[in-house]
Amino acid sequence: MLRHALLALFALLLLPGVAHAQQDFSDVTIKTTPLRGGIHLLTGRGGNMVASVGDDGVFLVDDQYAPLTERIQAALAKLTDQPVRFVINTHWHGDHVGGNENFATAGAVIVAHENVRERMSSDQFMAIFDRTVPASPPGALPVVTFEQGVSLHLNGDTVRVIHVANAHTDGDSLVFFENANVLHMGDVFFNGLYPFIDLGSGGGIHGMIAAVRSGLELADEDTIVVAGHGPNSDRAGMQAYLEMLESFRDRIAALKSAGKTLEEVVAANPTADFDATHGGRFISPERLVGFIYESL
Q1: Distance from C-alpha of 270 to C-alpha of 42, rounded to nearest angstrom
Q2: Which of 20, 40, 148, 193 is the most buried (most CB within 10 A)?
Q3: Which run of H or of E encompasses 52?
Q4: 190-240: per-residue pLDDT in tens?
Q5: How many whole angstroms separate alpha carbon 183 and alpha carbon 70?
Q6: pTM here?
């Protein structure tokens, strides 16, 4: 029952229209945590945010939900009197783009991979939750899009935004602050819990693994790694996450190659050694096995 309840909650977290109607945001507080080099972690409800703060203004990675925008702005105002100039969306899900329209109205430029704009521009059906996400209003859409990546030079840092294909979705981006050595992985990295692989949005296990490898290539032993969900980590933590995903892929691939059905693979419990630590939250072991099985 707990897993079903958590899955239903996560469904609401991902769907901006439904989330606004059914969630109570009254108790949400935006917490800011300094990382280094003018970079701050912001947490509230939804995907982890990162803000670069300096004389050139604020560069914000993801923006959670529209009802939280004023609280996010108030938290940033305690750090700087500069405006939010750019918002990068790491992907299209509602807990990462819900504040787009508000920030755009306040003067920010929304930046994302071209597939983020494409998916936000039309209704999206998420089969796992049996829900349709309505198209976003025009004011919420990214106005600057890219195919492979883009770099921004702000606050004395070079910010590299790098597309990773068919991972959590088909529009994921990693955001690397080179000078500060801070890497935001978006929902390619769920730290301490099983990841959601959105097959209907072009995600897949092979792309997830490749994307984590891309993150490892950017990181060194001193890199602060920000996950899309869960606590901050480092290169070693991301390496352990990669090895977990690779082991699941290999086990499930072997069973599928042997002719096992999805139900038989789930019954074999190929994720057993991590279920106690990772499997009791948003994504159950059964769901994760399904994601991997279907994307092989």
Answers
A1: 35
A2: 40
A3: strand 49-54
A4: 999 999 999 999 999 999 999 999 999 999 999 999 999 999 999 999 999
A5: 26
A6: 0.93
